[in-house]
Design brief:
Elements: H1 2-14, E1 19-23, H2 31-43, E2 47-51, H3 55-61, E3 64-69, E4 72-77, H4 80-86, E5 89-94, E6 97-103, H5 106-115, H6 136-165, H7 170-207
Parallel strand pairs: 1-2
Antiparallel strand pairs: 3-4, 5-6
Length: 208
Amino acid sequence: GGEKRRLYLLRILMEAPNILILDEPTNDLDIATLTRLEDYLDSFEGIVITVSHDRYFLDRVVSRIFCFENGTIKQYEGGYTDYLNHTTHKLDVTDAGISSSEKNSPDDDTAEETDKPKVTKDNWKDGQTKKLKMSYKEEKEFETIESDIATLEQQIEDTDNEMLKAANDFVKLGELSAKKEDLQKELEHKMDRWIYLEELADKISGNA
């Protein structure tokens, strides 16, 4: 079941949709696949509508909650934790979802509204702690960046040798000079990325 679900999800995402409707997307997914799905949704520019009992997934990817309450649908800005903090119902939440609910007293609502700032689509992530980790793209970049740097350094060295051989060919020399400049700019960018990823890896290791 899990293999078929991952394959189906991959096929859908390869079609580059602008709207995703996901029904319990975390079911049967291993941690690695789930992490990559979350990273993909972080950068997804379209609309995502999902139904899920996975409150951690909802906190990670959604910015608005629609909840059925007493036969009606109510809208809350923010993730699942924000919904729990600002809903007018006290919820008994388990890993399987909501097992029971009861209405807060009016005094509870008044106190909560006084103590907590209003959550909007712009500030719903404020105050949330997000576990530090590399995105899938950063992980793949980190795996190859040292070899990429070594390749660029070798290409620059080869270009220098070609420039020595073409010392009397001003046209060829100009082309090689421009090529070397481009390679040096790319190398500088790669070095900056390597420093950033190394520091990020150290921070992640320190927080593990």
